[in-house]
Each structure stands twice: as structure tokens, then as C-alpha cells.
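Q: C-alpha cells for this one, please.
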Amino acid sequence: MAFELSRFQFWLTSVLGAYIDVDRAYGAQCWDLHAHFANFFGLPVVNTTGGTGRWAGYAGTMYRDYPQTPAIKASYIQVPPTEAAKPGDQAIWGDSFWYYPATHVAVVIEDRGYDYIRCASQNSSESRWDNPFPGQSSGPVLDQWLPKQGLLGYLRPVESLVLQGQIITPEEDTLSADEVRQINDHTTLMLNQIALDGQLGGRTRGGMADVADKVADVWTWLRGGESGKRLAGPIPAMLASIQGQNAGLLEAVKQLAAKPGSPVDLSAVEQAAKAGAASALADLQATATTTVTLSQEG
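A: Here is the predicted structure, written as C-alpha cells:
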């Protein structure tokens, strides 16, 4: 899994106001928020460096001793404090400024170029009545503007951050073999229940079976055919087609549920499918989405 800005807001909303203690030690420390972030996005956790040296066991060692492992080097870039921060950066302070007497780490929300940076930060505010770790840590995760003074720099997730509203068109788009099989198996099961001859109401092969054939063609395309690859360009049309087919299937199911055994109004099914496809395609064209390139497996 990689860091995605489109999921960052969800993560942020889920942690604000919470007391996060990942390692079950010393209460809700600032490092615990970083660990929660890394676990959420499938990134390696950058641990603090122990021992007896300066900042031993504190957040400042996360930046000072980078890269601690090959996995960390592959997943984060060390960015100096003079560069503008980006959402998701792990901002790390030393102890040269009184506000951070024991170093600190927080997750950047935004940087407007001021002397303060907006972060999701834990253990950087006064303790409250609801603190479950009194005497060990102070305030919960808050949306705070923290002074940049004393900032060592940032550890930035290597995965590119895609702004919601920006469209990226990869040269190729692939699904893993397991993902294709899961989607195909589920769709085939549902289609078989309503489209095969004689299963519902004794219907003969007709419009619904034709829909099943068309969906099968979609999965053949998704598998990549003989070449194992496919161009990304047709993806919006293919997604809209699938949405249209789902709308047609839903219309057929509604008819059968209302009048079991009765013939299906294929014209109504066709109209529902066309309307569903048109609506889905309009949404795809009107709404900018984040496109992720997945690697082919098997």
C-alpha cells in the first residue's frame, strides 16, 4: 500500500481528538501518531534510536539517524527544513527551541510558507480531563499550527502525492490476477442466478443472457487478453459499461421480485442499462479522480 492524499483526509479525521498509543508504552507520545500513520498507509515505521547518546529514544533520532533500514530509505525521502512541506510529511524537531524540550514529530497537514506549519500533532498541548495516560503524556491528537523553529526537517513518503482533482493517465493500467478473479467470480455468480436459461420463471435465453455475454467480454479485456496488457484510455468507458450493466441487472431483478415468473420487460432493462452507463460516464468525465497503476501478478 502507498500513501495517497485522497485517503489522507480520512486518516486525519479518524485520529483528531484521539489518544493513540501504538506501542503500549509511555502513553500517547508524539511518535505513536507517526506509527499509526505509517501502519495506516502500509509504510515502514521509523523507530527512534535507543542507547545512551543524545536524544536516545526520542523523536529527533528519526531524522538524525535516517536511513535506519533499507526499507525506510526506499519509503521516505529526507527533506531539509528549508523546503516547503507537503501533506503527509513527517515533520521532526530537535530540542533547540523551548517548545520542543524533548524533540518532536508531527504529521504535516499544510505549509503556507509561514513561520508556523499546520500539523496533526499529539503530546504537544496541555493535558486534559479525559487524558487516559496522566503523568505519561499530555494532550490528544490536535490540528495545530506549530512553530518551525528548531525543525530538523521532514521525512517524506516516496510515493507521489496525487491531489484530488488531478487526473493521471498511465501508459498501462493493470489489475492483479487475484483481483480480476474475485471480481469475475462474484459477477458470474450473480449473473448466473438471473440470466441462465430456466433459472427464474422458465425464461428462454434472451436479453439477460446477452448481458452476461457482454460482461464476460469485459473480464476478458480486464485480463489483458493474450498480451496481458491493455491501454488505460478505454477505462472510463469500460467502467461506465459495467455500471450500465449493473443498472440493467437491477431493473431485471426488480421486475422479477415484483412479479415472479413473469416475462422480463427487456426494453425497460435496456433503457435502465443505457441510463446507468450514461450517468456513470458523465460522473467520470465531470469528476477528477485519482488513478492508481496496479502491477500485474501472474
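A few notes: Residues 240 and 282 are 9 Å apart (CA to CA). The longest strand covers residues 104-110.
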